[in-house]
Amino acid sequence: MSERLATIASASGLHARPAALFAEAAGALDIEVTIAPKGAPEDDALDASSILSLMTLGAAKGDEVVLRASGDGAEAALDSLVALLETDLDAV
Amino acid sequence: MQNFSGVGVMPGRVIGTIRHMPPALSEPPAGEKLDASVTAEQAIARLKEAAASVQADLRTRAATASPEAKAVLEATAQMATDSMLLKGANKLINTGLSAERGIWESGETVAQMLITLGGYMAERATDVLDVRARIVAALRGVPAPGIPDSTDPFILVAEDLAPADTATLDPAKVIALLTTGGGPQSHTAIIARAMGLTAIVAAKGLEALESGTEIFVDGAAGTISTSPGDTERTAVDAWLKNAALLSVFDGNGVMADGHLVPLLANVGGGKDAVKAAAAGAQGVGLLRTEFCFLGRDTEPSIEEQVAEYKAVFDAFGSKKVVVRTLDAGADKPLPFLTDASEPNPALGVRGYRTDTTSPGVLARQLSAIATASAGSEAEVWVMAPMISTPSEAADFAAMCADAGLATPGVMVEVPSAALGSEAILGQVSFASLGTNDLTQYTMAADRQLGPLAALNNPWQPAVLRLIELTVAGSRAEGNHKPVGVCGEAAADPALAVVLVGLGVSTLSMSARSLASVAAVLKTVTLERAGELAQLALAAPSAETARTAVREALPALAELGL
């Protein structure tokens, strides 16, 4: 199991367009990635490719979240998703 | 040829083929079990397939949609196969529920979570419920609910439209709107006027026509016929020629004898105001401030309100803008102001009355209006909705004075306000007749109910009589306090003539109707309008009043109005 900590950079938080872009990117991967607020139990982690899960997470700009994945390519996948979260997607 | 008739709410002559609005989707019964012949695995697979087809359909639509609609459709498409939504449903299916019931409940759970989060998330709950309905429709093999999708323009036939449907109404696709229910003051009618969409409501019998039938619609006459021929095609051509003339208002409402009738616009926000000003409106006769509040679960801050109001004021330079304070309640509930459990909301705590149950909101709104007004050139008047007594008018005037607003007024919507207008106008500077509610309360007929459409008609002589009494009260009061009209009645060119004849000084309407009303007013003198008003007052029914006045106004037929 690999883990990464990321800080939400999008001005509007992880909703709307940023959530849609992130869910799409997570869904395009061959492995399952979960997302959870920093400090939340691993069992409560949500499916990162689910836009509805991301929206109910309600993460705002500056909030920290933990991404988890395991298996082949997990490290590279997590790196790409962290980069996405740490970009202001409202600005692109 | 088959003929149908209803109440025309927006003029226009159109020939086209019809499409029916699918009936609303019924909720799968609570506890609906899986069919014995289907395993849970099969049901889950069917659900997955249905979700995928809904997603594909939404993506296809997104590809050809306008940029704004595209974003919404794409996000909705993404939701259709969302793991949270489907996993929730799969769990329920594994406990023995049907796929339809499973996705229904799972969608409900997700929507409730979003509503709890409030704000932007709460708005997205509607999208989740829309996706849920589409998936259930796909599972049942019936058309998706909502306005039918078509590559070609069509005439939409519906029982009545919900406010949510009208938001997805694409004027490039829907060329006319016909409802079998609904009344001339229903929201469907108001929206058709705002969009300039030829429309007839309460046209019985249309539900029997097959989709794809070619028909001719005359929105002014309120008539519909099948198998259109040369006569109808010529009528459409004549309308198109006149429509070009009727789309321009020169910004000067004047009668044949030079009597001035300022024509103002009803607007619901800054964007609307810019459009109305461009359409030549001589000011705003009704700023519906609800736009700033609707869909909110908390009161907007004073700063937010100031910005919203100022945007409207600035669109009109130094012209008059009449601001109506918050009109919540009845068909426009607000969670922080109105009590949804009232048994009879139209007669409940709504409009100005909410100040007694939630004091503070109105005072803060008045303060925001005063601040916005101080920062702009506009001549700002303020009026309260649902005033019934002189003492309410006096209390409102005092609140306006406290806020530093110089021109307080009242809406006349309740018959008691019309009957008591002399005493009420003694307390304030002006009155504005809200004919939609005045009609509903005079006739004791809910304006949302199709079966009551005939009663809910501002041509009812009793309603006209109350308008006459309101003006008479102003004359008796003695200080020439203006009485305007800001209801849908002002947008009907024939009725507009009657209103002016009854002594109304200004008319406020959807910006789209300004040119038609101006074109007809121009052909009549004030004296003649007075005679036509008496003709309408003396009529035994709304229909005879309307027919008599229309026959006396040849300009209507010439212009196709």
Question: How would you explain this protein's 3D organization?
Answer:
The complex is a heterodimer of chains A (92) and B (561). Chain A has a single domain, classed as HPr-like (Histidine-containing Protein, Chain: A, 2-Layer Sandwich), CATH 3.30.1340. The longest helix of chain A has 12 residues, at 16-27. The termini of chain A are far apart. In chain A, α1 runs antiparallel to α3. The model of chain A has no long low-confidence stretch (mean pLDDT 89). Chain A is α+β, with helices and mostly antiparallel strands and 92 residues long. In chain A, strands 1-4-2-3 form a four-stranded antiparallel sheet, with helices on one face. In chain A, 34% of the residues lie in helices and 20% in strands. Chain B is an alpha/beta fold and 561 residues long. Chain B folds into three domains: 3-21 and 147-233, 3-Layer(bba) Sandwich (Glucose Oxidase, domain 1); 40-140, Enzyme I, Chain A, domain 2, CATH 1.10.274; 250-559, Phosphoenolpyruvate-binding domains (TIM Barrel), CATH 3.20.20.60. Chain B is 46% helix and 14% strand. Chain B contains 22 helices and 16 strands. An eight-stranded mixed sheet of chain B has the order 1-8-7-3-4-5-6-2. The relative contact order of chain B is 0.10.
